[in-house]
Amino acid sequence: MAAVFVSAGLVSQAVADQASPKWLEQITVTANSVAPSAPGEGAARAEAARVPGGASVVGVSEYADGRASTLADVFAFTPGVFAQPRFGAEEARLSIRGSGLQRTFHMRGVYLLQDGIPITLADGSGDFQAVEPLALAYTEVRRGANALEYGATTLGGSVNFVSPSGHDGQGLQPRLEAGSFGYWRAQLSAGDVLPGGDYFASVSAYAQEGFRDWSAQRNGRLFANAALRPRDFIESRFFISAVHSDSQLPGSLTKAQLADAREQANAANLAGRQKRDFDLYRLANRTVIELSDATLELSAGYTYKDLWHPIFQVLQQRSGDSFVGVRYVSDHTLAGRQNRVVLGLSPSWNHVQDDRFVNLGGAKGARTAQSLQRSQNWTVYGENQFGLTAHWTLVTGAQWTDAERRYIDRFLANGDQSIDAAYTQFSPKIGLLWQGGPAWSVFANVSDSFEPPSFGELSGGPNVTPLRAQTARTLEVGTRGKMPRVEWDIAAYTARVRDELLGLNAPDGTPLGTVNAPRTVHRGVELGAQIQITRSLAWRSAYLWSDFRFDDNATYRDNRLPGLPEHFYRGELTWTVSGDGFVTLTTEWSPKKYAIDMANTWFADAYALLGLKIGRTPDQGLSWFIEARNLTDKTYAATTGVIPDAHGADAAQFLPGDGRAFYVGIGWRP
């Protein structure tokens, strides 16, 4: 496929060079950003267009015309991103290109940032409750090694949640949502531009009783930032976050339970009063120094989290994460051609005081484990974009990572299980971008990825398990662009993964826990498209084809890797009325059953959902919406667990999606 794209590009280049001499000269337009530390959605989209691979930007306006509660709402139409709510609320399953396939909780394999500063913990895990969808200006998604310029080389890439600045959200802006299952969400935000700086702040509260038993959630969030500009060429922006989150965990059901009474909670979850409650506080700074033809970005952040988590045991954790970063970006000419250089250094540290106890109905019993967990990462990265011709750009890059995972066992009744492991990797990347016209391009790249295990893999079970880092080599080709009435983003990839972190059985059926699967293959197609059918009728869609398999495994041969549907589609058809009014029909479709176990013996069923939204979204004044979801009241599994072998028998691995639901919302923009 790569050869087809490149050949087509060469032929088109030759034709264009003969027919359109104007393409022989490259024209570069630059402008000073309004806020260097918060350049805005337009600048982010321009940066994404320069990436020779999967890259996209999700503006808040793309999902704020309906209920905006979960990451599934945010990423509903983002190519390549699989995001499904686990309990009909904020606890979500996020995967890009099969990242963290076994991790149906807390995520792994995607580097999460907020305002360019990591919110992923230093060991690689993360929390979604730390993000407020309504307190974002936009979200940047870099799939795979296309995230290298942010210092990420995980299989899934990176997601950067970007806060509004005073330039984005001036004045007082209230918003209120309410709906089925006791759901309500209230937000009040304000921002302004002042002499020598700007500010933005958002306060929100959210609650729901939940569609299922034992699925209530409560949280409150504060997100604020303020910028100071002591000199014309220096801007320093401070960020503060405070999150309080309480979540009941109803757990997974068998397929029979799903069909019979999908609202019920798993009996063990209910008996153990399983929950995930935490308080999180974050302070960060990003300072941008503008030089003559470059920028120097300095960043630092600290996050403290206090977690209370009764599950199979009671987990009580107090953690602190620290990060500093230096990033240099230069746009200049080299040998008479346009050239862009990104160089960065981003060390991070994490310590977790982990205490575990017998779960006595949600209360602490006898101690079962105590440990101090320390993570440390040193990352150096660089990327260069060189304009070979007016059409062709060569992108090269590399990252060197040195990671340490130290587990200090302080509960020695079952022996000393301390671990001190180090992981080091050099990960290169090379790509080509062919600009076929002012608004469309074709790209291809080859890249390596690297992912040390998190403590969820090292110590997530009853015993500590030494593991190797997961690596992969990915080939990607695709195209994106915009023409009259049509906009598209298409990428195809194949990744040869080594030592994938999976829970497996031995050939004789003995459970091995999380181990390194020697060889697996991840390949797929990521598609996003929007077609303006008429002046008032538009169709938007996102489609994922995911083919993840073992490669001649001793136990599972070439079986499909479980947990994600092979085909997954979301679409919406919108009729625009009187400029800012709309009526939208929504769909979600998983057309084939897919396995929940590595042995491929038990499956989640296919399903299709329908929804409807009506509302008004003016640039100023009162906005409102009425939304209906799952209109046919379909019984389905929104996502599933992943196990080694179900032996063809029903297993409690299905997480029910919400039944028929209705939501309303109002907001105001001055």
Structural description of this entry:
The chain has 670 residues and is mainly β. It has one domain (2-669): TonB-dependent receptor, beta-barrel domain (Maltoporin, Chain A, Beta Barrel). The chain contains 6 helices and 34 strands. The chain has helices at residues 2-19, 41-49, 71-74, 255-260, 267-271, 455-458; strands at 55-59, 81-85, 92-96, 111-114, 117-118, 138-143, 157-162, 171-179, 183-194, 197-208, 217-231, 234-248, 275-290, 294-310, 314-334, 337-345, 348-360, 363-387, 392-409, 419-437, 440-451, 470-483, 486-505, 511-532, 537-550, 567-577, 581-590, 594-595, 603-604, 607-616, 621-629, 637-640, 654-656, 661-669. The protein has a 23-stranded antiparallel β-sheet that branches. A 5-stranded mixed β-sheet has the order 1-6-7-4-5, with helices on one face. It has a two-stranded antiparallel sheet with strand order 2-3. A hairpin with a 3-residue loop joins strand 14 and strand 15 (314-334). The radius of gyration is 24 Å and the shape is globular. The termini are far apart.
Summarize the structure.
By secondary structure, this protein is mainly beta. The chain has helices at 2-19, 41-49, 71-74, 255-260, 267-271, 455-458, and strands at residues 55-59, 81-85, 92-96, 111-114, 117-118, 138-143, 157-162, 171-179, 183-194, 197-208, 217-231, 234-248, 275-290, 294-310, 314-334, 337-345, 348-360, 363-387, 392-409, 419-437, 440-451, 470-483, 486-505, 511-532, 537-550, 567-577, 581-590, 594-595, 603-604, 607-616, 621-629, 637-640, 654-656, 661-669.
